[in-house]
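Lecture notes, continued. The same structure-token format from the folding unit now serves as the input rather than the output. Read the line below as a description of shape only.
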């Protein structure tokens, strides 16, 4: 069976070149496979000791490797966070191109409450709110003022059906 110049099979509909396995599921994900998974986050910081202390306590991660200029924190699920000291001159303008913040998932509602209280104790809490789809979100700032978000439940417990309004807040 032939096709015309537009890629339409003779007597048929246009094709995309994607077979049934590559068609998206109801959530826009490809059914062809799981795909890569986020494994590590790299954060540039002004003060390494302060950042390590903050993230260890908030995210309950352990220090796997540490040098005078960097640290690798690892969570119980093998999630990795690299912290690299950039000194006092480092900048991260919100609204610029690039990653703006990372959303972490609390282990439970109690864990989310623990994170919220810790942020409040450190005067780093910005807001807590429930989204329309049953997710509770806690937003704070790290010691360098970088935004961070912790949510519960995570994507496995509550599927997002809409874009978070927070991403338009700049």
């Amino acid at each position: 069976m032939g096709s015309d110049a537009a890629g339409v099979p003779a007597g048929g509909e246009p094709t995309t070149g994607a077979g049934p396995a590559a068609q998206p599921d109801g959530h826009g994900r490809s059914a062809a496979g799981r795909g890569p998974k986020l494994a590590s986050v790299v954060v540039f910081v002004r003060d390494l000791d302060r950042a390590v202390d903050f993230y260890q306590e908030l995210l309950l991660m352990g220090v796997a490797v540490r040098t005078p200029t960097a640290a690798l924190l690892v969570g119980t699920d093998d999630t990795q966070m690299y912290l690299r000291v950039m000194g006092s001159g480092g900048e991260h303008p919100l609204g610029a191109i690039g990653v703006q913040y990372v959303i972490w998932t609390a282990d439970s509602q109690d864990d989310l409450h623990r994170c919220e209280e810790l942020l409040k104790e450190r005067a780093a809490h910005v807001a807590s709110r429930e989204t329309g789809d049953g997710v509770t979100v806690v937003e704070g700032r790290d010691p360098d003022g970088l935004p961070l978000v912790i949510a519960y439940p995570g994507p496995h417990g509550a599927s997002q059906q809409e874009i978070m309004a927070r991403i338009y807040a700049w």
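Point for the exam: The chain has two helices and eight strands.
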